[in-house]
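Reviewers of the previous submission asked for a worked example of the structure-prediction workflow described in the proposal, so we include one complete record here. The input consisted solely of the amino acid sequence. No template or homolog information was supplied to the procedure at any stage.
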Amino acid sequence: MKKTFLSLFLYAGLLLFLINYSQAQNKPLNSSLVGSWVGMLKIQGISLTMVMNIKTNGSDSLIVTFDSPDQGAKGISTSSVKVTADSMIVRSKLISGLYQGKFTSDYSVLEGRWKQSGLDIPLNLEHKQEAFKRARPQEPIPPFPYVSEDISFRNEKAGISLAGTLTLPKEGKKYPAVVLITGSGPQNRDEELLGHKPFLLLSDYLTRRGIAVLRYDDRGVGKSGGKFSTSTTFDFAADAEAALGFLKTRPEIDTNKLGLIGHSEGGLIAPVVSSGRKDVDFIVLMAGTGVTGEKILLTQAAEIQKADSADEKSIQQAQTINQKIYDIVKKNPDNDKASAAIRKLLQKENDASWKKGSADTMSVASMEQTIKTVISPWFRTFLTLDPQLYLKKVHCSVLAINGDLDLQVDSKINLPAIEKALIFGGNSKYTIEEIHGVNHLFQTAKTGSPSEYGNIEETIQPGVLELIASWILQTVKPGTTVR
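From that input alone, the workflow returned the following structure tokens.
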């Protein structure tokens, strides 16, 4: 079973679970070491950026944390730090990691090794005075030529308030409007991931072209109320419905030209919300799904492993294990029984690896995190949720786009499935397009592997932004009937 570094997780489809911790450690420190120490971990064909942050408090005591920007991990706490005249040793119990290095004579580089889960990997860290930050040239910078208003709205059914941003063009009086729906995992209103802010960029692009945009923090994230961890796709759909309801109360909005744009899981939620409704005029599915969550997860796991140069035997082994886990979850609605069965299965796999003399085993912590994930309400719902049931009931205009390098939601499987469902439901008002050379985030990519996401400066390919904007404007142009 494959491990990633700094956060250990199964490649399990749309799930992206991030570590986000911070904790101060008080040790003596030469103030010249303050700043970011940046290097690259290279393992199994994957390069992961590693950042060690060093700060001091008022008494010149040491504060050290780790970041792994490519995995979305930030502020990982350290449990012990030792600095001598020529070396540094830092340990993090949280991730069972240890870094040990020696300073060059000018203290500009730490030449050392990263140790975690039985592996010992070379890692040199270069000292930078400024905080590490990835280049994101597309990120919109104020002042903006439109109105940007922080708002909140209620999901009365759930009894929670959600916070977001409404952007309105300055020209004109009544605007077509869209609600942006994030992908899986806890996301803020910008759908921020690995230093990218796709929804900030998308809302900026659309609003500059005369389209009002509402984006909001997921429940339990940012300034939104509610609890994310116990919520399901249907709960998030209810939040999107509440967002639509809020737009309909605004005098600036043309309520005959309302739409939804969903990315990834959001591309599943949009049909759930719009199915059977007459007040949604169009939906845009960005890497939306057309098949069950189970098929999404299995396909994605295999495709990502292939891109990461895994051999066929390893891929098949992971497929077999994942399928067994999913079968257990489906057959055991009782969480205690499901947990016990999965734990027994994973321990059996570990024992088999040890007998073969392989170090490729799963830690107890990783095993328990996997179990916690797959028995969660969200996972149980997503695993068996069939988008076909809702796509067949969508009668508004639909734009469905997927990248041909998307390894998370395979375009070859999902786009035909989406089209089939729309046709079956009698909807002829759709555009299906596979975008060449882009990944799950619609970045111009080489392989499409998630390991590339953070290293790509582009947030969304400009052609994709133009396609979405022009399609919406064409769909809602004066004299066009969209309902």
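Confidence is low (pLDDT under 50) at residues 1-29, 479-483. We consider this example representative of the routine output the project will generate in years two and three.
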